[in-house]
Amino acid sequence: MVFFSRVERSMVRLNRRLRWAAIPIAVFTAIVLAGCTTQELNGYLPGFIAGEPPATNNTERISALWVTSWVVLFGVGIIAWGLLMWSVAVYRRRRGQTGMPVQLRYNMPIEVFFTVVPLVLILGFFFFTARDEAIIEARFDEPDQVIEVYGKQWAWDFNYVNENVYTAGIQVQPDNSPGAEQGAVDQASIPTLYLPVGKKIEIQLNARDVIHSFWVIDFLYKKDVIPGRTNFMSVIPEREGTYMGKCAELCGEFHSMMLFKVKVVSQAEYDAYTQSLADAGFVGQLDSTFDRNQNLPGVAAPEAEKE
Questions:
Q1: What domain range includes position 46?
Q2: Burial class (CB in 10 A: 0-12, 13-18, 19+), 261
């Protein structure tokens, strides 16, 4: 009884110490989180500038899914590493010990724990990923602007559908000006897509030859561009600026040069730009006439041969 009394008193003292230790730990954690920059709070992902709105309406949602996922998994890793180190330290072979240590088999609580916890994590990740993906992939019922994009080796064509104007991109050219760094490109040759800020934009993605991928880095989002299929990207740009884009699918020799820019501008500047295209004679729409793949299977039901 004396032994158990001493153990109980020791446990009470330990619990008190843990409670007192929890206070400074909580304060320290709050201070650290309060001192985090916008970049740190969003996992160092692009698309965020302190004091300004995110790049698009989906940027925060994508960042939250990413940051929450790695925080949870990092916590799981700490617990797993801690248990591993604890087992190594507590159950190590002592001096004078020989033979195999006592073996434990069919420990149902541990087996259930290591089955249920991963299952809960996987179901949780699946639920939140599916939920956010459904929101991000949903098309607008009535988009304010429709942009048609054609990916081609190794550039981009842009149709501004509402305004009935277009730009035909050329392959990015190297910068051969005196003093240019090795590998630098001519910025004027990079195809540029203009988007009005705060508007519902539907981007229709098509390929003229092989599979490409339309990736605007700061949007934290990309979509494959597949021959014979139209994919859709629905987005609301929320911050004016110039964003870099590139093809994210290996598409041939000059894949790394398949760059483009996205300029998010005011509605007035957007209207002025599309009007300048009309004034320059770029009226109409670029269609599949220029596709290299002219033998893709159709989507209509086959017709009976006529006699």
A1: 36-91+102-137
A2: middle
